[in-house]
């Protein structure tokens, strides 16, 4: 249960977004530059997180991504399950297709309690907690210092709010 590069980038990007002002879209290239990750790869991850209901995605000149309402309460396990798929915690540490109490691999007995503790830890860590730790200055996400984005013009905030409302209406069948 070692995190893939995709999961690492997803978590880092979401923590970064949780440190930024609410309801202000952040450009993919801004996040990619801050985290020193490939922008095209990050864009695919961000779209996946949008489809998974954690982010809003906005197109156009004032486009970008922002956390959906309540997304800061999302725990890392939910994010990892979204990125890696539901088999994340079910897969055998040695890669066997079938591994359970009755058909165990040589590592099963030792790995199961460790895996359970890791899942418990991930379920207790929310974006909000991790963003607060980064904002405190004690922890970091990259080699660069954390900076808040400059405030967007009021017209851009209105556009983002209108797009969120339109998206919510579409999801609710309006």
Automatic annotation (TrEMBL):
GO terms for molecular function: DNA-binding transcription factor activity. Transmembrane segments: none annotated. Pfam families: Rrf2. One of its GO terms (cellular component) is cytosol. InterPro entries: TR_Rrf2-type_CS, Tscrpt_reg_Rrf2, WH-like_DNA-bd_sf, WH_DNA-bd_sf. Signal peptide: none annotated. It comes from the Bacteria. This is Rrf2 family transcriptional regulator. It comes from Sterolibacterium denitrificans.
């Amino acid at each position: 249960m070692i995190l893939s590069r995709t999961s690492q980038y997803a978590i880092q990007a979401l923590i970064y977004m949780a440190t930024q002002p609410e309801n202000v879209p952040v450009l993919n290239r801004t996040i990619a530059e801050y985290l020193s990750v490939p922008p095209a790869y990050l864009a695919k991850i961000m779209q996946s997180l949008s489809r998974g209901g954690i982010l809003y995605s906005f197109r156009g000149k004032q486009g970008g991504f922002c956390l959906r309402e309540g997304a800061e309460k999302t725990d890392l396990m939910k994010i990892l399950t979204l990125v890696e798929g539901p088999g994340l915690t079910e897969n055998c540490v040695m890669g066997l297709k079938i591994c359970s109490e009755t058909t165990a691999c040589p590592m099963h007995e030792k790995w199961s309690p460790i895996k359970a503790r890791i899942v418990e830890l991930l379920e207790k860590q929310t974006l909000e907690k991790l963003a607060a730790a980064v904002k405190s200055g004690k922890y970091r996400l990259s080699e660069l210092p954390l900076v808040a984005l400059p405030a967007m013009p009021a017209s851009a905030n209105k556009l983002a709010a209108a797009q969120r409302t339109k998206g919510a209406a579409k999801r609710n069948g309006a």
